[in-house]
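Methods — Computational structure assignment.
A single polypeptide chain was analysed. Its primary sequence is given first, followed by the predicted tertiary structure written as structure tokens.
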Amino acid sequence: MKVKVKITSKMRYILLVLLTTVLGLICAVSLSQNTHIYKYTSTSMVYVARNVGDANLGGGLDGIYQELMANSEIASDFTTFITSEAAYDRLTENLGARVPWLSEHQYDAEHHFIEVTTETQSRLINMDVTTDNAKDSAKIANECTVLLQEFCSDVFGIDSVQIIKEASPKDHPSSPTPAFLMLVGLGGGFIIGIGICVLIWYKNGRNGRKE
């Protein structure tokens, strides 16, 4: 005895949405295999301190406060320097063939890969370097600490710059995460399926009205 299953238009719509959702997931999995889409961020940290008894800063609590504010200014000035084309050329020259990423990319002032951050009342300065290669990000971040030491010495006359944390290659990308790609694939496939169903329903409705 044969059982015939009647596929209604509603079931066709559901199957179509399921198909596009699965295809979206497959595309996301395929895209996740492309390592060039991933970004890796490595962070180095330095400690900048002036002598509290410096005549330019004064002494006591007021001197300490001025020192902390001065470090914020140092971070701001160093950000301007390290994101300049001159610093990019300096990094490329110092690292040479050890960091292929630098030689393969051109300087872009609008989309820079180095971010310098510090808290207002802190002597610590962080340098985040983001590239598509984990090892290159770490090497550049560590070289930035060397440039910061030279910058503080040459511009501000500060020699007490200590490296608190050296950057190390990350095992996992900072963005995008594989889970995020899967979610985008599922969501994108689902939305496309719904859109196709709406178009088919609208087209069938118009054809019915014409008849």
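Note: The beta strands are 40-48, 114-117, 124-131, 161-165.
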